[in-house]
Amino acid sequence: MLGYRFSLFDPAQNGRSKFEQLLDLFMQLLTYTSGDVSEALNWLTQLDKQYQLTGEDYGLGDFIDELKEKGYLDENNQTGEIRITPKTEKGIRKRSLEEIFGKLKKTKQGEHRTYKPGQGDEINPETRPFQFGDMLEQIDFVSSIRNAQISHGVDQLQMDEEDLEIRETDFKSQTSTVLMIDISHSMILYGEDRITPAKKVAMALSELITTKYPKDTLDIVVFGNDAWPIEIKDIPYLQVGPYHTNTVAGLELAMDLLRRRKNPNKQIFMITDGKPTCLKIGRKYYKNSFGLDRKVINRCINLAAQCKKLKIPITTFMIATDPYLQQFVQEFTETNHGKAYFASLDDLGSFIFKDFESGKRKTVY
């Protein structure tokens, strides 16, 4: 006999299976552990003991077996080492995108609209009456023929200029972006984890660009004593090191990467929490962690001016509130004619995405 089986509704589960619930938590823990599966599973075990995440019918052992079956984990049979797979790396990026981008609210602040005529590459549902100078390919013939039928009837069909309607389009600019992430030791000082929000933003931004703006390019640059590029797949494993902050090296590498890109629009996003404290002169490092060293600061200001000449705006996201650091960022930003945000860790993602999206889309008529 066919029928329905009813069970107790738990709003926290939101209709998801136990595996899906644990998978979300496991993905979050992997971000905090920089991709260390053993540590993430250890944390998950402790959380299970404290909050009873699993039950008698489904335990952590079943969850781990299902992770392997569905391709989220790969175990080395010889060494017994368990690592995450590319499927898991993409899943972490996707969840970061949903976590950050899903919280954004529609706002008029920061939008850049233009009222100049032009052609776009994405059709809008809205139409408007024909105006002198509109292109033939902009005419919405379905709406125009319907207007002609209403005005003149079907038997004596004729089309006048008043019957024509124009389909509006959106223009998406192609942009090359370099995201600079500070991995100096200060990113985990004073008991505050600043690197994890930065990684989440990098993963979310990379997932947004690769899926929604495939013609754009995104390069990730990390900088400490030196600077080097990393692949998108390496972001979950990113860790802070015992480094000073060589902002100059990061900017020089970012500029070099952008020189190779053919997109006309180029920009640099820089996430940092401290002042520049390091320079590499020849093979030696010049370091000074006390105050603002003008020898280091002047090199940063000079690079900001060079980027301005190359029409590369720099947007700085400062995770610090010290007045003298804000003064440096203000001087740096004014030299480049860029932007600066003094963002908290909770607002970092929304600041970056609003700034990125506002520069991507312009409505043209």
What does this structure look like?
This protein has 3 domains: 18-84, no CATH class; 123-169, no CATH class; 175-364, Rossmann fold (3-Layer(aba) Sandwich), CATH 3.40.50.410. The strands form 4 sheets. It has a 6-stranded mixed beta sheet with strand order 7-6-5-8-11-12, sandwiched between helices. A 3-stranded antiparallel beta sheet has the order 3-4-13. Strands 1-2 form a two-stranded antiparallel ribbon. The protein has 10 helices and 13 strands. The protein has helices at 18-32, 37-51, 60-69, 86-101, 141-152, 195-212, 247-259, 294-309, 323-336, 348-358; strands spanning 73-75, 82-84, 122-129, 165-172, 175-182, 217-223, 227-230, 265-272, 278-281, 284-287, 314-318, 339-342, 361-364. With 365 residues, the chain is an alpha/beta fold. The termini are far apart.
